[in-house]
Write a structure and sequence with these properties.
147 residues, mainly alpha
């Protein structure tokens, strides 16, 4: 008969972040869908709303990503923000103060999400370590027995 037993006896490890290409693929698809939805609902005349929505998407993706994924996530969200959320749609432009601010907001959101995730995971791992008690020592009888 096979009996399944857990090989790990210590506390659970901190979860691994999602692979960077998967985060970027999700950022690409999510930003495209989000900008298309916002363009259909409110139009292209409200880039502030699109920036807020894409910043939220960046932060949510940052919760499951590595720190090295943040610049690519911000750049992909900015491409859809600049290319499709402002008129003329489909044309990439660079307006220095505006686009620098947008990239900074998106990068800050992605880094904030990743930082918060690491802090919460470290806190949870610390709590698991401090609340874990070692197994009790076996109680051996006195030897030789008392007379």
């Amino acid at each position: 008969m096979i009996q399944w037993v857990s090989l790990g006896t210590g506390p659970r490890p901190v979860p691994q972040p999602v692979a960077t290409p998967l985060v970027w693929a999700t950022a690409f698809g999510g930003a495209m869908a989000l900008v298309a939805l916002l363009n259909a609902l409110v139009g292209t005349d409200r880039p502030g709303l699109a920036l807020a929505a894409l910043s939220l998407l960046s932060a949510l993706l940052g919760l499951h990503a590595r720190f090295t994924a943040a610049p690519g996530t911000a750049a992909l969200c900015w491409l859809f923000l600049n290319g499709f959320a402002i008129p003329p749609a489909g044309v990439l432009t660079w307006t220095n103060p505006r686009d620098t601010f947008w990239l900074t907001c998106l990068l800050t959101a992605a880094l904030t999400g990743t930082t918060l995730a690491r802090l919460f995971q470290a806190r949870a791992a610390y709590r698991r370590l401090t609340t874990a008690h070692p197994p009790p020592a076996p109680d051996f009888p006195d030897w030789p027995p008392p007379h």
